[in-house]
Amino acid sequence: MKYLTSQEYNTILLAIDSSTDFIVHGRSKKKEFYETLFNKLFNVTQEDMLNKVYQEEINKPISKS
Tens digits of per-residue pLDDT, 17-52? Predict the structure, then answer.
């Protein structure tokens, strides 16, 4: 598992939040799509935080595809 730094996380979040598709469809037609996207990308469990040695580097985990 690779963990995002806060800068990487903020960059991805800004890219999604400022995309035309999210602005136009993110709260209506594609609401479920974006909710799933945010839940999959930006979900940290307490176990994730406790298992990581360098906790100051953790912001949000992403899994290898």
Answer: 899 999 999 989 999 999 888 877 777 666 666 665
Q: Are 4 and 12 in contact (CB under 8 A)?
A: yes
How many other CB atoms are found less than 10 A from the CB of residue 26? 19
pTM: 0.54
The domain locations on the chain are 2-59
Residue 17: C-alpha distances to residues 46, 53, 57, 59, 65 (Å): 26, 31, 23, 18, 23
**Which residues, 6 or more positions from 30, have their beta carbon under 8 angstroms from its beta carbon?**
21, 22
